[in-house]
Amino acid sequence: MVSIETIAVIGAGTMGSGIAYAAALGGYRVALYDVAPEFIQRGIERIHTNLAEGVARKKVDVQLAQAARQRITPTHTLGDAANAELIVEAAPEQLELKRQLFGQLDALAPAHTIFASNTSSLSINVLASATKRADRFLGLHFFNPAHLMPLVEVIRGEATSDETLRVALDVITRLGKTPVQCKDTPAFIVNRVARPFYGEAFRLLGEGAADVATIDALVESAGFKMGPFRLIDLIGCDVNFAVTQSVYNAFFQDPKYRPHPIQQQMVESGRLGRKTGRGFYSYE
Predict the structure, then answer these.
(1) Whether 83 is catalytic
(2) 120 is catalytic
(3) How does pLDDT run across 88-100, given as a tens digit for each residue?
């Protein structure tokens, strides 16, 4: 069985930095990669902020937080990240971008390195076909915010080996997360359930039945920690729209997964949520 000592995270955005946080706090050395130093710097700052908040809330021990900071090595050289025993891709939800990344990583990484995609809706089998290691390829879908949310979908491709699955489950457990195994089906489990949740909220808003704050308040009054629009702002309107489109197409345009024009308007106007300072709510 492969011994995992270093985990590389490809993408230092909200999701990637959250995964890097969890991995470092779990005791792994972490290589955090992105294409530009400024992206990496923002990711590192986000991790440090989250660690400080964890300490302030007495959820994270001060010494553990300090050790986690020291375990993270930033890099904008893909070859440096490729030396890890486990590589977790957290790039934007674009099939060809992810396939291109995995093709490059496959040429750089040692034969024993395991590849994982954090995709929320794309086929693991299709992504794995961009490499020559389909047996060492699987999906590890974390949920936003990844440093707090315990659930991780562990998606097994058709060629994923038993050993690869065992290693992945061990890693996720060591991170203090709850792994849930699922098959490589469109949108896996959570996002297939979540699309109608978002879709109904958009339809209510689009028809003028209620405004954003009212819809969120109603949902939260039913026991949800966050209403649909607060959650979309956290995830990113662009990510939410991309996943909705992917699921809609994967189910051959089944109407219950149809995207809403409001999603496209939000993305095209640059109102992507917390990361841009404005989405359905203002964060400026």
Answers:
(1) no
(2) yes
(3) 999 998 999 999 9
Q: Are residues 218 and 100 in the same domain?
A: no
Among candidate residues 134, 161, 183, the one where a domain is terminated: 183
Active-site hit among 50, 93, 121, 141: 141
CB 172 within 8 A of CB 183: no
Active-site annotation holder among 85, 89, 93, 153: 153
Q: Which residues pair with 30 in a beta bridge?
A: 7, 72
Answer for the pair 180, 152: CB distance below 8 angstroms, yes or no: yes
50 carries an active-site annotation: no
Last residue of one domain, picked from the residues 163, 183, 203: 183
Is the pLDDT at 210 greater than 90? The verdict is yes
Q: Token digits for 240? A: 């939410």
Which member of 17, 50, 117, 191 is catalytic?
A: 191
Cα–Cα distance for residue pair 90/221, rounded to 1 Å: 33
Residues 42 and 160 in one domain: yes
Mean pLDDT of 123-130: 98
* pLDDT of res. 2: 78
Residue 213 has pLDDT above 80, yes or no: yes
pLDDT of residue 1: 66
